[in-house]
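Readers outside the structure-tokenisation community will struggle with the description of the input data as it stands. What matters is that the chain and its backbone geometry are given together, residue for residue. For illustration, here is how one protein appears when written out as sequence plus structure tokens:

…
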Amino acid sequence: MFVAMLCLPAAVWGQGGRAGRAAAAAAQQAAPPANPTGPGAAPAAPTGAAGDFFVYDTTAGTGMAIPDAPPTETHQKITANGEPLAYTARAGYQPLRNATTGQTVAHMFYTSYAKDGVSDESSRPLVFFLGGAPGVAATWQEFGGFGPKRMKWASDGSAGEPPYGWVDNPNTPLAQADLVFVNPVGTAFSRPDQPGRGAGFWNTAADIASLAEFVRGFVNANNRRNSPLFLAGEDSGTGRVAGLAAFLNEHQIPVQGVVLLSMTMGPDAAAGDAQYITLLPSLVMAAWYHKKLAPELSAMSAEQISGQARQFASREYLHALYNGDRMSADERAKVLADMSRLTGLSKPFLVNNNLRVTLDRFSGELLRDPRRGLSNSDSRVGGFVPPAAGGGRGGRGGFGVPAMAIDFNLSNLAGGFQTAYEAYLRRDLTFNGNSNGVFYLSSGGVGAFTSTGNDEASLAGAFARDPHLRLFVGVNYFDLSAPFYATEYTLAHLNVSPEVRAHNITVSHFEAGQMAYADSKASVRLQADLARFISEATSRK
């Protein structure tokens, strides 16, 4: 088994996951979201306190054993792309066994969907969705927009009000490939067999090794060893997915393609003044969406205004930050006027911030008059920001707490999401295992995660080991946590061969926030682009 404590020969997941996103956000001085929801949530450290009924306690002497049992199986039909699609759905646990002793050390909870009526299943593409980061389940991808059934979002894009439900998903990629949604140990219902073993899974090497063992076990058990394999990661999943691709390749399990959605930026893109240069175009897009720009700019399309933003950031803005006080009075006046015009921010505000605008200051300033703030995960979504003064009941303490940064978008999406998903598991997938167990969607099941390595190195290493590997990167204009220009910068500096850069990397841009698959318009394009990517990756000569 791969999950033994290994020193990976490949470059490993380090700045990816929550560690990578947190590092990038810290570099931009952005306040983290207070609500632990959504793919951008940080895992809560288990405390073991007697009153903590929702947090997994690694200090407990014994835990509830998960028995080995076959997954539940159901047969269902939907309509996808105007065509009927019959499929087999499975939900259950796959044990992870020690390669030497054969003893089970953990059980990973997963769901899978396979198209029916396929003459040769062994050659059909198979996509493994691996969630976002430590503590975050793959449920967001499955039920948010990639599975054959998805959350029934309200007309405003939120989860709406109870009762919550689900609907057929016409944009699922199931028509092109079979899908497996994998929940790492400590997420969803996945658990170590003994609580004390949990921390052993929460480091870069063990995370990749345990997921590799899941992939190996799944393809062997389901006669899919010859299927073209794809790995999909979201949010800061760059290092996890890239490191896993390299790891599997070294263990003679080749990977056909890697899919990265809301890819985390490389360290160079978040260092020094580069952090402001790579962030600025995303600030421009937010100001454009909220109609804070001049009429001629507001009339532009997303592609046009993003082009203007890139040009300003890479030329005049770069020149200004480089020259600093060496700028002439005319140069300073021009850059202030142009930056104010593109961001909707006043010249005095830009002067007071020395032309360097952080996420938290931008969010507080752009919609300051209506006292609203922006969501880092989707700058199109805002909400009322309460005053920071605390002290309930006369200002002497009590229930009053200081105002905290809130990601209004993730709050809107998360409400009812888990409620609907657990009902879907029980009703449609007939899964009745662990009926009283806590389902860890975004936090509570994973403690402190030890990260090592570098995401860019992981991705470059995967290409070095397999120059035929294909990469799809989904870039979102309104995701402030993964600025689109920072992703473009990272890809432009990726250490790969000219042949790989010219032929193996596909980049698609979406008018969406962090989860493009949950956006009613962007999801249609995303599905079409992914279908094309999978088709081209599996038909190349």
In short: Residues 271-379 form one domain. The first strand starts at residue 72 and ends at 80. The chain is about 35% helix and 15% strand.
